[in-house]
Amino acid sequence: VQLVESGGGLVQPGGSLRLSCVASGFAISMENMSWHRQAPGKERDLVAMISSNADYTNYADSVKGRFTISRDNAKNTVYLQMDSLKPEDTAVYYCLSSRTGYGQGTQVTVSS
Predict the structure, then answer these.
(1) Looking at the DSSP assignment, which residues form a beta bridge with residue 46?
(2) What b/e sequence results for 44-63 when a residue is b if at least 16 CB atoms lie within 10 Å of its CB, and e otherwise?
(3) Which of 5, 45, 71, 108 is the least buried, fewest Cβ under 10 Å from its Cβ?
């Protein structure tokens, strides 16, 4: 069982990225899922979470109105759409399920 994140990269301030988290070895349909991030020298923090049937989402104050979490249970995938990116969004982004723990992460760098 594992989670694999992808979609990170280098983007200019104001740009967008879409992260994906694909689960294997288990079905995410019964799982609440979340995205977290860790910047250098800082703790890992919650960015967004989504309930198993997507009827509830929650966001860190710092990303509200800019980031959107979603899921496709048929594809066993969770997404994080990130718009209006800022340099302070630079971090390694991790997907989390209670079944697996964190994935390996994907680096997001926002810089001009």
Answers:
(1) 36
(2) eeebbbbeeeeeeeebeeeb
(3) 45
- With tokens 């923090």, the residue in question is 45
Quick one: which of 74, 89, 72 has its CA closest to 17?
89
pLDDT in tens, 53-95: 999 999 999 999 999 999 999 999 999 999 999 999 999 999 9
HEC readout, 29-86:
HHCCEEEEEECCCCCEEEEEEECCCCCCEEECCCCCCCEEEEEEHHHCEEEEEECCCC
Under DSSP, is residue 25 helix (H, G, I), strand (E, B) or coil?
Answer: coil
